[in-house]
Amino acid sequence: MPLRFIIPFAFMFLFGAVARADTILVWGDSLSAGYGLERGQEWPTLLQTRLQAEGFRHVVVNASVSGETSSGGLTRLPAALAEHAPTLVILELGANDGLRGLKPQLLADNLAAMIDAAHAAGARVLLIGMRMPPNYGPAYTQRFAEVFANVAAEKKVPLVPFLMDGFADRPELFLPDGIHPAAEAQPRIVDTVWAGLRPLLAAKVTKAARK
After folding, report:
1. Domains of the chain as residue ranges with CATH
2. Are 147 and 104 spatial neighbours (Cβ–Cβ below 8 Å)?
C-alpha cells in the first residue's frame, strides 16, 4: 500500500485509540437511578460533571433501576457488561434486599457473584455500602452492614461504607418518603463516592504512565 494511504489510516487508528474513553457503569437501584428527582439531578450525572472538571475523560453509564434487588442485578449484569464494556463498575445494590428483610447471606452471595462477573469482564469494582434504619433491630442492621465490609475484604475491592454518609439523620435532605435523598443531597453523595473512586482513577493513570 502506498505511503500516502498508510499515513492517514495510521492517524485514524491512533486518533481512535486516544479518543476512546473508559466507561464507568453505575449499577444500582432507585438511590442511583434518581427516583423522585428531575432528570440530571441524580448523583451519577453529577459524577460525570466532576470527572470532566477533574480532567478525566471517562463516560458514566447509569444503568440503575428503581426497585432493583441484588438478585435482579445479578441476572441483568452479564448483558450490561457485554453491551457497555466498562473498565469500572460502581456497585450500589442491597438496599431493597434489606427493606424486604432478605437474608444477609443471600445479599453477600449476589454481591460476590456480581464482582466476579465484573472482574471476568475486565472491569474493576467499587462497592457501595448501605445501612438499614434502626427499626429493623440491632441484630439485623449489624449483620446487614457487615455484608458489604466482608464481601469487599473477601473480593479485595475498595468499599465506600455508606452511600448516605454524613446526612442520613437529616430529614430535610430527603424526599417526603424519608427514604430517597433529595436533590440537595446529591452533591454530598458525589463527594462520598468520589473519595472511593478517585484512588482507582489515579491508580490507572499511574499504571498507564509507566508503560
Report:
1. 23-200 (3.40.50.1110)
2. yes
d(CA 167, CA 184): 11
Name the strand (E) or helix (H) holding 128: strand 124-128
CA 205 centroid distance within chain: 19
* CA pair distance 65, 151, nearest whole angstrom: 22
Over the stretch 84-122, which tens digit does the pLDDT of each residue have? 999 999 999 999 999 999 999 999 999 999 999 999 999
Distance CA 97, CA 84 (A): 26
Residues assigned a catalytic role: 30, 177, 180
Backbone φ and ψ of 112, nearest 5°:
-60, -40
pLDDT tens digits, one per residue of 22-63:
999 999 999 999 999 999 999 999 999 999 999 999 999 999
Q: Read off the amino acid at residue 177.
A: D
Please give the grid coordinates belonging to residue 98: 434489606
Q: What is the pTM of this model?
A: 0.88
Residues 6+ away with beta carbon under 8 Å from 115? 91, 125, 127, 151, 155, 157
Q: Please, which residues have CB within 8 angstroms of residue 74's CB and are 6 or more apart in sequence?
A: 110, 113, 114, 117
H-helix or E-strand containing 10? Answer: helix 3-19
